[in-house]
Amino acid sequence: VKWAFGFPGAVTLTSQPTVVGGRVFAASYTGDVYALDAESGCTYWKFTAATSVRHALSVGRIGNRWAVFFGDTQSNAYAVDVQTGKEIWNVNVDDHPVSR
Questions:
Q1: Phi and psi at residue 43, in whole multiples of 5°?
Q2: Fewer CB within a 10 Å sphere, N or C end of the chain?
Q3: pLDDT by residue (tens digit) across 32-54?
Q4: Distance between CA atoms of 83 and 92, rounded to whole angstroms?
């Protein structure tokens, strides 16, 4: 094992990590999203969504900057800056009480 990462407060994980540009982007059921160095496992940043993140993260461009895209279990969609972990935008995509 080269390195390991523990998700603080999480008892289960339901999302797959995404590896792009030497970084590992991973989320926990607590709603925390992490950017980790793929070589060392060190944390670049942590972002906390409103609620649980249950699926893999996607990485793409918004204009001239890269973003991590994901959704939470309250139907909120997020774009977070790859470099800083700062929220670019979030939007609720469905207001039905049991939407995911």
A1: -85, 125
A2: N
A3: 999 999 999 999 999 999 999 98
A4: 24
Tokens of 88: 């670019």
d(CA 52, CA 28): 7
Whether residue 99 has pLDDT greater than 80: no
- The pLDDT value given to residue 100: 66
Dihedral over Cα of 3, 8, 97, 78: its sign: negative
Residue type, 33: V
> What's the CA gap between 44 and 66, in Å, rounded?
15
How many residues does this entry show for the chain? Answer: 100
**What single DSSP character describes residue 7?**
-
Chain centroid to CA 51: 12
Pick from 50, 52, 19, 51: which is nearest to 36 by CA?
A: 19
Place of tokens 């279990």: 73
Q: Which residue has the tokens 């940043």?
A: 45
